[in-house]
Structure prediction request, 183 residues.
Amino acid sequence: MYQNINRQNAKVTGFEINSKLYLGELVKILNGFNLSYKYTHQKGRVDGNIPMNAIQPHTAVYGLGYQYPDDKFGIDIYWTKVKAKEAKDTYDMFSEKPGIQPIKWRSDSYSMVDLVTYVKPVKNVTLQFGVYNLTDRKYLTWESARSIKPFGTSNLINQQTGAGINRFYSPGRNYKLSAEITF
Prediction:
């Protein structure tokens, strides 16, 4: 049987950097262009030195965008780099071995590229189109990997061969089209 438990002694530390540079403020001919950067770093432990599995790996997102001066349309390209989840930062609560054992299935480092564009054809209407995972990269997020259990029927894969792991991978290249109407 599995049950979530709230821990009394949990400690999470970390930081986030989120920045955007409007290039037109530096060089007039680049008006509308921007560079962006976001980085997150976290560490978490419970009851002294047991790793906290909910902590995501270090992530960096680099962006280059263009926004038409009247905000009628814009386009952004993002490059996301995610660090591998290290064994020392995981804890297999179901392990039958003594001591703190790492989780077997962990996410490797990966990077991906997303392209998002929008247009505002009339007041209060925004149409957005995105191509995500533009390079069609096969990757496993830590959030998916940590949900793999060594027992039961839900989220189970063959622990010796890895059969069934493919269903935990994120989608390849995918598309999104949306319309927003504000009142």
